[in-house]
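Per your request, structure below.
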């Protein structure tokens, strides 16, 4: 498949300066999901869920907050966020346990660990994913904005000496389907089994399960 695509792009891997083209070319299959909220609510219905990055602080909107929506459909819901002010605010809407450190979980078991649009805010991704590896959950769903989404590419402005980038001011990086999957598998004991593109492909979502692996 990759060689066929390269040929369509005019890449001749027999030429010395193009012979490593396959090395640089990554292939990721995905399923498109139009509605992010419906996807998460259907996924978590009647399940025990740990929701990381639950507060949406400081741009919190109770009508749009995923944690509030999940509280209406899950059998058990716990929140996780390092933002103590945001947790205090969210408690006014969902009065359930909240955590700010992986050690506080005490091996609590969950059906699903949901990590939506959080990893791009993290300052030390490797440490974060190592911590995520300690969570006792059957399935993990980790999402991030998709750098290749049409909406993201069209609204950024580039000129000779200026870039205007429409992005959350707290984001540390952009992810593609491949790079999100790659980091998850590189720095955790999780194996990505499926990739989704959510909300008109604006979000990448990796479904993962634990595998026997010693982190180095």
């Amino acid at each position: 498949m990759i060689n066929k695509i390269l040929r369509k792009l005019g890449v001749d891997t027999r030429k010395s300066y193009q012979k490593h083209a396959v090395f640089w070319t990554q292939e990721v299959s995905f399923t498109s999901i139009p509605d992010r909220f419906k996807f998460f609510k259907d996924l978590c219905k009647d399940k025990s869920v740990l929701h990381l990055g639950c507060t949406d602080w400081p741009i919190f909107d109770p009508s749009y907050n995923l944690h509030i929506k999940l509280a209406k459909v899950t059998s058990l819901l716990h929140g996780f966020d390092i933002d103590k002010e945001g947790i205090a605010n969210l408690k006014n809407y969902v009065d359930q346990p909240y955590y700010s450190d992986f050690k506080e979980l005490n091996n609590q078991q969950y059906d699903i660990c949901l990590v939506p649009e959080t990893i791009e805010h993290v300052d030390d991704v490797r440490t974060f994913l190592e911590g995520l590896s300690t969570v006792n959950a059957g399935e993990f769903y980790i999402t991030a904005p998709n750098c290749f989404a049409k909406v993201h590419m069209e609204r950024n402005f580039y000129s000779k000496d200026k870039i205007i980038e429409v992005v959350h001011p707290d984001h540390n990086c952009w992810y593609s389907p491949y790079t999100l999957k790659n980091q998850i598998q590189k720095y955790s004991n999780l194996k990505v089994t499926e990739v989704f593109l959510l909300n008109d492909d604006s979000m990448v979502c990796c479904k993962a399960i634990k595998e026997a692996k010693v982190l180095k």
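The radius of gyration is 19 Å.

Regards,
D.
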